[in-house]
Design brief:
This protein is α/β, with parallel strands linked by helices. It is built from 3 helices and 3 strands. It has a 3-stranded parallel sheet. Strand 1, helix 1 and strand 2 form a beta-alpha-beta unit.
Length: 79
């Protein structure tokens, strides 16, 4: 586990399916570390039918934000 992660670290995420191949977490986390920002970026494999629950969880966990892989994922929480 990264020693820079604390109880104050801002959580950001990529959601979609599949997302395991994405280079975004490595790119963002490298940038956060280089800039001295207290954030971490992770990828969550979320199917379209799980988006509403995922958005609710993000609010509960007070996540700083997320990127959706597809327009379908982005708009799924509006239905």
């Amino acid at each position: 586990m990264d020693s820079r992660i604390s109880g104050h670290t801002g959580l950001l995420a990529l959601i979609g399916s599949p997302v395991g191949h994405s280079g975004s977490p490595a790119m963002y986390n490298y940038s956060f570390e280089r800039l001295g920002l207290d954030y971490v970026y992770v990828a969550f494999d979320i199917k379209v039918e799980e988006v509403a629950d995922a958005i609710a969880a993000m609010r509960t966990f007070k996540m700083r934000g997320c990127n959706a892989v597809s327009y379908t994922h982005l708009r799924a929480h509006e239905t």
